[in-house]
Amino acid sequence: MRKRLLTLVLALGLILALAPAALAATVTVDQLRQVFPQAPAAGRTLTRGEFAALLARAAGLQVAGSAASQDDTWYVPAVMTLKEKGVIRGYPDGLLHVDQPVTLLEGAVMASRLLALPDGVAAPEVTGSLGRDSWGYTPYAWLVRVGLLQPGQDAEAPLTVDSGIAFLSRVFGSDPQAEKIIQAAQQAQAKIKDLKFTGSMAMIVSPRPEAAGKMPPVSMQGKIESEINYPLNLHQKMDMTINLPVNKMPGNDLPPDLQPQGKVQFSTEQYLVDGTMYQKLAAPGMEKPQWMKLPKEALPDLEALIEQSRNAATMPGGVAPELKDSFHFQYLGEGEENGHRVHRIAYYGLINDWQTLLKALPGGLTPEMEQALNQAGGILQSISFWGVEAVGVEDNLTYASEMSGLVSFADQFQGEAMPLEAMTISMKVTDYQYDSGVKIEVPAEALAAPELPLTPPQPDTKTSMVPQVQG
Q1: Phi, psi (5° rounding) for residue 204?
Q2: Percent share of the chain, pLDDT over 90
Q3: Which residues have a Cβ under 8 Å from the Cβ of 195 and sit 6 or more positions away?
Q4: Is the pTM higher than 0.90?
Q5: How confident is the model at residue 208 (pLDDT cuts 50, 70, 90)?
Q6: Cα 283 vs. chain centroid, distance in angstroms?
Q7: CB-based contact 108:115 (threshold 8 Å)
């Protein structure tokens, strides 16, 4: 189980790096008004049941048994659908109170659950009117981050019909101005010859409460430096630190050199030049860093991979072009990054079609990776993406970006309970350089490195002291 999980988590890393997907539905204000059996007064307070019906329609959910009846139960099918999905959960008394007014915060929390925002994910740093001690602060903060809520809005104020419809049409729609800027960015970045950037990455893997004793939470953070010379040369360095909570490890049996802090520091460096990949690893326990050459048979179609990376560079968060039409964008206004005047564009979305996602990945993957990616659909409940890009006002090039990929795991995989509940991968880049004359040359020690065998060597049966058992 652990080996499968490791392979699948690596596969998820490829997905998060190459193909953030998003929601498929886009809804208008007029379409939402048609949800009501009778036209309501614009300023009337919206009930929780009515909001549930609007939310289901905005997200494009199939609601079983829905019928536009004229009585007060017309929204019940939508409420039951959302209840089954865990979107609407009721009050401490166990009741849903569907006839009570819905507040902006309640609506924001329910919408964030349909955007697949895990309950246990950490809140981003935002300035707003809601305190961190609020029950709904985390989803509130994520929606503020991408411009779906304004910091000055009263989160406890009841929604009216008009304000509720406006909120949902914004959440499940896109700002035309933001889309226009993204299109211009696609055209500008497709013309670049080389790219350099530095950034940071952090990952948190959280176990389910019942599995915390066997698999404690693990976090990792570090720095990334990359340079790409199109069409097929790449150089990348990563310095990472893994944080292991040694006091919660089963048996507390980590190596002595990791006690008591439980930190593992390692670094990797890799070159991809003329279709060959060279990789160096430096980690605890190694006498010195080691270079190795990866056999071409073990690699995916590198030309397709780099081309995918180049195409993805024209979309926020590195989204594959095949998925761009289902992304949601919001315009956050102008700002400044590294001396450049920029537009700030927020984006967010949800993976809800695994096969479409797989088709968007580069071709030529190894059989092992293809198998892992196909299996990954079985362990996932959802993957959502939240990010902000800074696009130059004058040249339409990206000068800063932040992206968070939030993974929720299924309760079970192949009949076994899943020990993991969620994984968050965050990346931040604030130093982009374009067409700076990048030259990528493989160092001599890398060129002289041995090629890593595809399969581990078999023991020498002639000299082995272990008896060989036949049959």
Answers
A1: -130, 125
A2: 42
A3: 226, 227, 228, 230, 313, 432, 433, 434, 438
A4: no
A5: confident
A6: 27
A7: no
Is the pLDDT assigned to residue 333 strictly greater than 90? yes
Is residue 7 pLDDT above 50, yes or no? no
The helix (H) or strand (E) run that includes residue 239 is strand 233-243
CA angle (175, 177, 183) in 5-degree steps: 105
Locus of tokens 């990797």 = 268
- Mean pLDDT to the nearest integer, 131-155: 93
Return the pLDDT at 167.
97
AA letter at 239: D
Q: 468: Cβ–Cβ under 8 A, 6 or more apart, which residues? A: 461
The token duo for 54 is 């609007």
Cα 212 from Cα 247, distance rounded (Å): 12
Other Cβ atoms closer than 10 A to 416: 10
Task: Extract the tokens encoding 183.
Answer: 């299109």
Other C-beta atoms lying within 10 Å of the C-beta of residue 147: 20
DSSP 273: E
Contact 394, 341 (CB under 8 A): yes
pLDDT of residue 463 exceeding 90, the answer is: no
What does DSSP assign to residue 40? Answer: P
Which two structure tokens, joined as six digits, stand for 370? Answer: 């293809």
The residue type found at 241 is: T
3-state secondary structure 70-93: CCCCCCHHHHHHHHHCCCCCCCCC
State the Cα–Cα distance between residues 202 and 240, nearest whole angstrom: 9
Q: 435 φ, ψ to 5°?
A: 50, 50
**What pLDDT does residue 255 have?**
52
> What angle is formed at CA 98 by the lines to CA 93 and CA 101, rounded to 5 degrees?
100
- pLDDT, tens only, 243-298: 876 554 444 455 555 445 678 889 999 998 887 889 999 988 788 899 999 877 66
Which amino acid belongs to residue 193? K
CA 190 to each of CA 421, 435, 438: distance values in angstroms, whole numbers, following the listed order: 38, 12, 17
CB 36 within 8 A of CB 50: yes
